[in-house]
């Protein structure tokens, strides 16, 4: 039997999560410069916590692709590659549309056993919309991966997953406002309901519009964050080591 967490371990977990969320928000808003070494001691003072939750938060953020560890052993904000973003989005669209188009060509329907629970999940999200949070990108990716897998070609889903991992740090910028979360939920439902109804041509058009709008929003918001980071290079914030 697994022991119940103690109040101390629960508090420590809360501090880790709070430090992670706070640093992620500051990174995505462009508060730090690309030249800022994210020193544990000074970040701890900034957030009013010890160095341990900061250290763990930086490790998680590195996994997200939002910070990078350089040769000096320190963590720095990672610079999004907007030049490659459109190319990667083009590959993403190609993979996703292929999953829909192959069903049109072969006459083989998507697996309803996978899509009906997916539809129900997003209906529940529509009825009880989550607060905007960059982590919503994970739910978004799960939707697209499941849709691709339901087409019957598992390799398409594997390739899409690899592309998603590369653009995830930038795509987090898509889900920081309630209107984008609401629109994404609505568009996802429109896509999956069309597929279940056999309207594959309609689902192709809806998917193309959905991904294109996401790319435009992500590009603009990430560009603003990058601009802010560049402007912050010479500021006196106390974050430099």
* Main beta sheet: 2 strands, antiparallel
Q: Name the strands of the widest sheet in spatial order.
A: 1-2
Label the structural class. Answer: mainly alpha
Sheet-strand content, in percent, reads under 5%
Shape: elongated
Sequence of secondary-structure elements = HHHEEHHHHHH
Number of helices: 9
Instruction: Report the mean per-residue pLDDT as an integer.
Output: 88
**How helical, in percent, are the residues?**
55-70%
User: Low-confidence runs (pLDDT<50, min 5 residues)?
Assistant: 236-241
Kindly, what is the distance between the CA atoms of the first and last residues, rounded to a whole number of angstroms?
46 Å
**How many strands?**
2
Rg, rounded, reads 20 Å
Structure description:
The chain has 241 residues and is mainly alpha-helical. It has helices at 7-28, 40-47, 51-64, 82-106, 112-127, 136-149, 154-171, 178-196, 200-231; strands at 67-69, 75-77. It has a two-stranded antiparallel sheet with strand order 1-2. The N and C termini lie far apart (46 Å). Mean pLDDT is 88; it is low at 236-241.
Which descriptors apply to this entry?
about 240 residues, two-stranded antiparallel sheet, 9 helices, elongated
Quick summary of this structure?
This protein is 70% helix and 2% strand. The longest helix has 32 residues, at 200-231.
């Amino acid at each position: 039997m697994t022991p119940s967490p103690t109040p101390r371990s629960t508090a420590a977990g809360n501090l880790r999560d709070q430090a992670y969320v706070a640093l992620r928000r500051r990174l995505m808003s462009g508060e730090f410069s690309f030249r800022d070494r994210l020193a544990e001691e000074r970040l701890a003072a900034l957030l009013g916590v010890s160095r341990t939750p900061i250290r763990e938060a930086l490790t998680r953020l590195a996994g997200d692709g939002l910070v990078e560890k350089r040769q000096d052993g320190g963590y720095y904000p990672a610079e999004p590659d907007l030049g490659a973003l459109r190319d990667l989005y083009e590959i993403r669209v190609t993979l996703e549309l292929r999953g829909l188009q192959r069903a049109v060509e072969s006459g083989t329907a998507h697996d309803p056993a996978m899509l009906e629970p997916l539809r129900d999940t997003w209906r529940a999200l529509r009825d009880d919309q989550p607060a905007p949070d960059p982590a919503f990108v994970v739910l978004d990716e799960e939707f697209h991966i499941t849709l691709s897998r339901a087409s019957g070609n598992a390799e398409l889903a594997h390739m899409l997953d690899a592309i998603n991992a590369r653009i995830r740090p930038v795509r987090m910028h898509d889900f920081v406002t309630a209107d984008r979360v609401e629109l994404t939920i609505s568009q996802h439902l429109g896509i999956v309901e069309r597929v279940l109804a056999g309207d594959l041509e309609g689902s192709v058009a809806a998917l193309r519009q959905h991904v294109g709008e996401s790319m435009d929003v992500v590009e603009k918001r990430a560009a603003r964050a990058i601009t802010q980071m560049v402007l912050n290079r010479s500021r006196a914030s106390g974050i430099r080591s």
